[in-house]
Amino acid sequence: MNYFKNSNKIQFYSIGISYKKTDASIRGLFSISEENQNLLLEKGKRLGCSNLLLISTCNRTELYAFTQNPQILLDLILEFSLGTQALLKENSFVFHGQAAVQHLFEVGCGLDSQILGDFEIIGQVKKSYEQSLKHKTAHIFLDRLVNSVIQSSRRVKAQTQLSSGATSVSYAGVQYIKDQFINLSEKKILLFGTGKLGRNTCENLLKHTNHESITLINRSSEKANILGAKFDVKVKPLHSLSEEISKTDIMFVATGAQTPTIEAHHIKREKPLLILDLSIPRNVNQNIVHLPGVTLLHMDELTELTNKTLENRQEHLPKAIQVMNEIKNEFFEWVESRQMVPTITALQSKLKGYKDHELQKMVTEKEFVDPDMVMEITDKVVQKLTGKFAGYIRQNSDNMEKDLEFIQQVFKLDDNLINHE
Fold this sequence. Notes:
- This protein is an alpha/beta fold.
- The protein has helices at about 25-30, 35-45, 70-80, 85-90, 100-110, 120-135, 140-160, 170-180, 195-210, 220-230, 240-245, 300-305, 315-365, 370-395, 400-410; strands at about 10-20, 50-55, 60-65, 95, 190, 215, 235, 250-255, 275, 295-300.
- It has 3 domains: about 10-160, Beta Polymerase, domain 2; about 170-305, 3-Layer(aba) Sandwich (Rossmann fold); about 340-415.
- About 50% of the residues lie in helices and about 10% in strands.
- It has a 6-stranded parallel beta sheet with strand order 7-6-5-8-9-10, sandwiched between helices. The protein has a 4-stranded antiparallel beta sheet with strand order 2-3-1-4, with helices on both faces.
- The longest helix is centred in the C-terminal third of the chain and has 49 residues, at about 315-365.
């Protein structure tokens, strides 16, 4: 049974690019800037997409919406990203109906993360929903769906151990250097970028290294100073980037720019330097790998290396899926009930029309002792009849869509009254 399709053939779709089918370079092309995210939502609204949600992170660019044609959503991604049609056709996915809802639940519960059990994505889902509210592309369906996903994510995190161990790519990077350097606390570490990813990396570094060995640099000195004061770590200005690189042993890059922020001319040294680029798109120019002593790892390689340490999380996956499905099924039941409401309401209106017509005829032919009482009694009869229809469909229907269409055809109900919100 399709809960998400109405008489105009509008369906709920999820389309996009994720890490499962692409590498970091391709994902970077489809990354959408904050300015373009706002433009995309406005354009989608003008094109008639309802309950439109855009998620754009380092690992995925996804659109969710009710629309007649998923190509509309694919075209929106193309228009507001740097990706090509050929790459999108080769690497995109399209889900509709229950599968689209299932996908958002899996994303929000950390089941579709590059690192299994990474719950940082739920914060992005919340932020994306706030954008939808701001642009008035969210309605009751999306409100209920996102809140159900958030509730499901909380329960999975609280009731299972799916998030035990590494919880993000920033942790994966720190875990990697822990495995590589026995005397890690003696190494000088430079963190370039103090956005959300940079903050997470800094927190993870502080848990496992000596804070006196960490230096922060950011393109915005104000943000760097705030973070430096919060964690009691050194902060240097952007113009000293090359100088600080020459002193460091390990460098994390988490700048989140659309083009490389670290080039070969920034590195003026020959002693060993490990650079971990956590950014999407890549923020370290690949040509630095030709420099003597430089080792460059991107988040894709980090994920592959750390996945071996996350095998134990698979043991907790069945329980997580069970918890997620409980709330997901409650959401489906809600959608099912809402699907029935417009038809039952239209039926009630039609029956009342029959009743009013017949009563009017009777009033003109005979005098009633109490017309108001007759009206009240007949209204109750109409209410009971529609209640019987609703009760039967809710408890006994094997194909709600077919049964509702039958009622619509028998009573010739107005299509304009039967629409999804």
